[in-house]
Each structure stands twice: as structure tokens, then as C-alpha cells.
């Protein structure tokens, strides 16, 4: 069975916050077959829900792509601990990718957004 | 005098965290004349430093582009309060742009990063 991509956001009780992440995830969900979004806390689906559902569907391997600009305490400590527990609980392999902000595509997209519609003087 | 773009990151005492944001900002700093990076807290230069320096250089108008994926408490409350104080203190106009994650370029860049090098199965 192939690998499943999970885009992991922090989560919030604020629905507008989650909607922003759903919009951020949508192009990936459209382009990458089987990919899902999940939340660390405060919103659903949880990471546990998404891994459990994937394991039930036969996936034995997952790649978590954190929708964080940089690695703070959550990505250095909390998420690796969650990953170890989930691997053990669901008998799957989980690869934790670097935070999305470490991919050069994101810095270039920030530039494009600023130049095209956020800035009023692009020098 | 023209408008100055300021990319605003949260800030951290962790140097690796700040380095990630400096890399994220670099394409914009290269492309947009006079643009700067600033931090809300825990790192330098502070937003106050960057506004003060710009005001001294003759800028009377600034656009702050938050390097946040979504608007949480900081962008809904803390940053608008900082902006009001800074406008009054430095006698300048400051426009607060939406968080960078609300720009469609970012969702597309997440997709491109996942498809090109973060995912192991792109369907």
C-alpha cells in the first residue's frame, strides 16, 4: 500500500483560523491523491483520527508535512512524541517532514504575494 | 517619500527559528526595494526599531505584512495595538496587511513543495 501525505496544522477553536488552513491545504489535497489535513489540537480531524482512518484503509506509511513556518517547541518535542505514540498504537511508519516554511517555494511565494498585491511600492 | 514594506515575524529566542524566517524573507528583501524584516518579540530588530529607523530616514507610510499562516490572537489584538502605538509615537501611517497565509500564492507553493520534494507518492 502506498504512502499517505498528511498536512498537519496546529488547530484552534477559532473557525476562521481553521478555514485559513483548509484553504492553504486545498491545492495540495487536490493535487496529491489520498492526502489529508489534520490538526494537533483544538480542531478536527485530529492527527490520531486521520492516522487511524488511514490505517483502517490499509495505509502502513504516512508522511506528515507540518503547516508551520518554522520549528518551535511543538515541532521539536510535541509532534515527535505524538508520532512515536501513533506508530506504536497503529503499527504504521510515520515520517515527519520539515516545517513547510523551510521549503524554498514558500519564500518565493511570499515575494510573489507582496509584489503582486500586498505591497504598494515594489521599488 | 514612498511606502516601506515590513515583513513581521513573531520572534523567538531560538536562533534556528529566526534563521528560518530570515530565509523566508530573503526573496522579498531582494525584490522589494527598502523592505525590512522585524520581530514582534524575543528577537531583533523589533518592529519599533524598524519603524523608528524608517521614520528617521523619511518614510511616513509603512505596510506590515505578517509572516503568519493565519490570524490568531497576536494578529487580531496584539499587533493592531502595537500599530496604533507606533503610529502615534512616530507620527507615521501603518497599514496592516492580512497574514501571508491568506494569499493564494502560499497554498500553491505548499502544493509545489509537497509534490516536488516532500511527498513520496504524488498520486
Please describe what this structure looks like.
2 copies of one chain form a homodimer. The first copy, chain A, has 123 residues and is an alpha/beta fold. Chain A has a single domain (4-118), classed as Rossmann fold (3-Layer(aba) Sandwich), CATH 3.40.50.1400. Chain A is globular. The first copy, chain A, has helices at residues 15-31, 47-56, 73-90, 104-118; strands at residues 3-9, 36-39, 61-66, 93-96. Helices cover 49% and strands 17% of the residues of chain A. The mean pLDDT of chain A is 94. At the A-B interface, strand 1, helix 1, strand 3 and helix 4 of A face strand 1, helix 1, strand 3 and helix 4 of B.
Task: Give the strand order of the largest sheet of chain A, numbering strands 1, 2, ... along the chain.
Answer: 2-1-3-4
Q: Name the helicity range of chain A.
A: 40-55%
Largest interface: A-B, 61 and 61 residues
Reported for the largest beta sheet of chain A, the result is:
4 strands, parallel
Number of domains of chain A: 1
Order of helices and strands of chain A: EHEHEHEH
What amount of the residues of chain A lies in strands?
A: 15-25%
Structure described in brief:
Chains A, B: InterPro entries: CbiX-like, Sirohydro_Cobaltochel/CbiX. Two copies of one chain form a homodimer. With 123 residues, chain A is an alpha/beta fold.
Topology (elements, then pairings):
The structure is a homodimer of 123-residue chains.
Chain A: E1 3-9, H1 15-31, E2 36-39, H2 47-56, E3 61-66, H3 73-90, E4 93-96, H4 104-118
Parallel strand pairs in A: 1-2, 1-3, 3-4
Amino acid at each position: 500500500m502506498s504512502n499517505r501525505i498528511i498536512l498537519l496544522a496546529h488547530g484552534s477553536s477559532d473557525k476562521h483560523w481553521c478555514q485559513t488552513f483548509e484553504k492553504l491545504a486545498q491545492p495540495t489535497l487536490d493535487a496529491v491523491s489520498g492526502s489529508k489535513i489534520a490538526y494537533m489540537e483544538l480542531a478536527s480531524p485530529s492527527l490520531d483520527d486521520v492516522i487511524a482512518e488511514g490505517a483502517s484503509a490499509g495505509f502502513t506509511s504516512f508522511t506528515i508535512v507540518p503547516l508551520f513556518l518554522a520549528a518551535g517547541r511543538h515541532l521539536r518535542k510535541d509532534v515527535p512524541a505524538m508520532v512515536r505514540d501513533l506508530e506504536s498504537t497503529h503499527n504504521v511508519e510515520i515520517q515527519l517532514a520539515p516545517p513547510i516554511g523551510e521549503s524554498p517555494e514558500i519564500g518565493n511565494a511570499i515575494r510573489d504575494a507582496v509584489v503582486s498585491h500586498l505591497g504598494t511600492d515594489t521599488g
